[in-house]
Amino acid sequence: MSLIVFEGIDGTGKTTCADKLLVYLVSKGLDCAKFSEPSHSKYGMKIRNAMNGEKRLSVERETELFVKDRKVDVKENIKPALKEGKIVLLDRYYFSTAAYQGSRMTTIEWQAANLIITRNEQFSPIPDLVLFFFADIDSCIERIAKGRDIKTYMERKDNLIRVNDIFKLIHAEMHGKYNSFAINANQDIETVFNDVKDITDTFLATRIS
Q1: How far apart are CA 191 and CA 197, in angstroms?
Q2: What is the pLDDT of residue 42?
């Protein structure tokens, strides 16, 4: 069993790579499951509905909803799949909460992010592999605009810059704790995916051997 997490701002291609990796691993005969956060629990749906609204929830309310949603996801999806020995691919995890909600808190951004990570790790499985996707912000915005019509406050450039900076901090500060890799997502999607595939193949080879 392994938990592989994909993190980064929208427009980096992380979701596409997660989907492609699922197909690739299944083609190799591996038992896999893929989930994304927020989930489709009642808390996750409240988050999704709020993100499509004009008025943003308070950071306290937003964070609480993510924690409640994650508790459901861990209990009903992630832990059962890991217990069955599956490779679990997770599109966003508590690192996203640390980056997005941490960027809104009044404390120093890294301190806020670290507090959120610590809180979530009290009930969430620690990932075996974390892939942080980083790309030029303007390129991400262009990809978002081409990919869908709905734009939320999450996708404003100033917000994406702050969030991306915290993702970089998390990767730098926690690299020794987690088996994490920075993915150059400025490349074309096939090149990015080949990097993801190579890292994953190497990682799984060490787990199986």
Answers
A1: 10
A2: 96
How many Å apart are CA 11 and CA 16, to the nearest integer?
Answer: 10
Q: Residue 127 pLDDT more than 80?
A: yes
Q: Residue 187 phi/psi, 5° resolution?
A: -80, 170
The amino acid at residue 189 is I
Q: At what angle do helices 109-120 and 157-174 cross, to 10 degrees?
A: 70
CB 192 within 8 A of CB 141: no
Please say if the pLDDT value at position 209 is more than 60. Answer: no
Q: What is the pLDDT of residue 30?
A: 96
Q: Domains (ranges, CATH) in the chain?
A: 2-208 (3.40.50.300)
Residue with tokens 């993190």: 7
> What's the confidence (pLDDT) of residue 151?
60
Characterise 92 by phi-psi region: left (phi > 0), alpha (psi -120 to 50), beta (else): left
